[in-house]
Design goal:
The chain is 18% helix and 22% strand. By secondary structure, the chain is α/β, with parallel strands linked by helices. The longest helix has 21 residues, at 2-22.
C-alpha cells in the first residue's frame, strides 16, 4: 500500500511538473491542495495566470514574489487568514481574487500593487480598507461584498479609474459623498445593507446604482431620483422597478439612529386614507436645516465654503423634467498660485479641507442658481411620481431658491416636517 502511494505521488508530481512547463495558465481548482505547490516556484517562472480556487490553502508562501510574470492570481475559497508582504510586491498583478477566505484585515502594503485593476475580497471578515489603497490609481473593480463594513472611506471616490464598486451584504449605513465626483464609475451595488440614505447630489458619471433590500432607506434626493429615472424613461413600468429596486421607501426608520445626524419627522396628510408620521435621516455633512418659511442668512462658514469651492471647481447640476434628463459637470478650475491655499497647513481648517475635497452635499436644485451646499440648507420634502410614489428631498441654498423651486418642480405634494434632534 505504501509503495503504491509513493508511486502515485511521484506520478502526480511528474504530471504537475510537465503541466507547469508546457502552460502559461494553471487551472488547479478543487484539487484539495493544502500548500501552494512549490513546483511552480521551480518550473513556473513563466506562468502568467494561476487558478487555485476551492482548495485548502492556509497561507501563501514568501517565495510567491519569485513568480515575476504572474498577472492574474485566483485564491477564491481557501482558508487564508493573513497575506504575506511578498504578495504585495508582485508588481505585474492586475487581478487578485481573495474571496471566500478567512481574512479579517487587508494589510497596508497592498497599496504597493499599483498596477492592480481588479481586487476581489468578497466573503471574508473585513471591516476596514487601509488608506494606502488610495495609491492604486489603476484599480477599476473593487468588490467587497459579504464582509463587515459599516462605512467606506471617502478616498474611494478619488480612485481615478474605478468603474465598479460591489459592496452587497455588508452593514453600510451610508456611502461616501466623494463617490458623486468619481469620474469613471458606472456600477455601484450596495444591496442588502443598512443604508438610511444615498448621496443627495447628482453623480458626475451617472452610474447604475443597485440598492435593493435596504429596509431603512425611505427617501431619495431630487437629483438622484431624476438621474435614475432618466436611465429608465424608455422602459415599461414593470421594468422600472428593477432599476429603482425593492425593499425600501417604507415610511419608517430604524430605532438605532446616528445621534450626530439630523433627523426630520415627516407628516404626510391622508396617505392611504389616514395621516402618517415617519422619520428620515439626513447625511452627516448637513449640520443645520431650514424649512421654506424661514428667512435667515446662512453661517459665515457655509458662505466661505461656497466661495472657496466655486473659485476652485466648476460644478453644475441641470435637471430637465420633460423629457427627464439630468446633467452633472465637475472640473477643477485653474487658479493663480497666490490663490491656491493649502488648507491642510492649517489644523483649524481640517474640516473645511475635507468638505471641499469630498464635494458638496448637493448643488442647489433651483435651475438658475447652481450654488454648492455643504453644511446648511433649506429642505423641501415631497412626493415624486415619475416611476412610483417616492418620498423625495430637495436642497436649496436659500429661502428665495426654495420658494421658486416649489413653483415649477414635479414634487406634487409638499410635506410638513420638523427637526427632532
Amino acid at each position: 500500500m505504501s509503495t503504491f502511494f509513493h508511486r502515485y505521488q511521484k506520478n502526480n508530481s511528474t504530471e504537475m511538473m510537465n503541466e507547469i512547463k508546457t502552460k502559461v495558465i494553471l487551472h488547479w481548482n478543487c484539487r484539495g491542495l493544502m500548500e501552494f505547490p512549490e513546483a511552480i516556484r521551480i518550473y513556473g517562472s513563466h506562468i502568467q495566470e494561476i487558478y487555485l480556487k476551492w482548495n485548502k490553502l492556509t497561507t501563501l508562501p514568501p517565495w510567491i514574489i519569485e513568480l515575476f510574470n504572474v498577472t492574474n492570481l485566483y485564491i477564491y475559497g481557501n482558508l487564508i487568514k493573513e497575506l504575506p508582504p511578498e504578495l504585495c510586491q508582485m508588481s505585474r498583478l492586475t487581478v487578485l481574487d481573495l474571496s471566500a477566505n478567512k481574512l479579517e484585515q487587508i494589510p497596508p502594503y497592498i497599496g504597493n500593487l499599483v498596477n492592480l485593476k481588479s481586487l476581489l475580497i468578497n466573503q471574508n471578515f473585513i471591516d476596514k480598507l487601509p488608506a494606502e489603497m488610495k495609491q492604486m490609481h489603476n484599480l477599476e473593480i473593487l468588490s467587497i461584498s459579504g464582509n463587515k463594513f459599516v462605512a467606506l472611506p471617502e478616498w474611494i471616490g478619488s480612485l481615478p479609474k474605478l468603474k465598479e464598486l460591489n459592496a452587497d451584504n455588508n452593514c453600510l449605513k451610508e456611502l461616501p459623498n466623494r463617490l458623486t465626483l468619481s469620474p469613471e464609475i458606472s456600477i455601484i451595488s450596495v444591496c442588502s445593507n443598512r443604508l438610511k440614505y444615498l448621496p443627495l447630489n447628482g453623480f458626475v458619471s451617472s452610474p447604475c446604482i443597485r440598492f435593493d433590500a435596504n429596509v431603512y432607506l425611505n427617501y431619495l434626493s431630487y437629483p438622484l431620483l431624476y438621474q435614475l429615472t432618466s436611465q429608465i424613461q424608455d422602459l415599461f413600468m414593470y421594468d422600472q422597478r428593477s432599476i429603482l429596486g425593492y425593499g425600501y421607501f417604507k415610511p419608517h426608520c430604524e430605532n438605532t439612529v446616528l445621534h450626530r445626524n439630523i433627523k426630520l419627522n415627516i407628516k404626510i396628510n391622508a396617505l392611504h386614507g389616514k395621516d402618517t408620521d415617519f422619520m428620515i435621516e439626513l447625511p452627516r455633512q448637513l449640520l443645520k436645516v431650514h424649512n421654506i418659511c424661514e428667512n435667515t442668512v446662512v453661517s459665515l462658514w457655509e458662505l466661505a465654503l461656497r466661495k472657496a469651492y466655486t473659485e476652485r471647481y466648476k460644478h453644475t447640476l441641470n435637471i430637465v423634467t420633460s423629457p427627464v434628463n439630468i446633467n452633472v459637470q465637475y472640473e477643477p478650475i485653474a487658479i493663480n498660485n497666490y490663490q491656491n491655499l493649502d488648507f491642510t497647513m492649517y489644523p483649524i481648517n481640517c474640516a473645511s479641507c475635507n468638505l471641499l475635497t469630498n464635494g458638496p452635499v448637493s448643488i442647489c436644485v433651483h435651475s438658475q442658481c447652481q450654488q454648492p451646499i455643504f453644511t446648511e440648507a433649506w429642505v423641501i420634502v415631497g412626493i415624486s411620481h415619475h416611476a412610483q410614489p417616492i418620498t423625495t428631498v430637495a436642497l436649496c441654498c436659500c429661502k428665495k431658491c426654495a420658494s421658486e423651486f416649489t413653483k415649477y418642480s414635479k414634487m406634487t405634494v409638499n410635506h410638513d416636517w420638523y427637526h427632532i434632534n
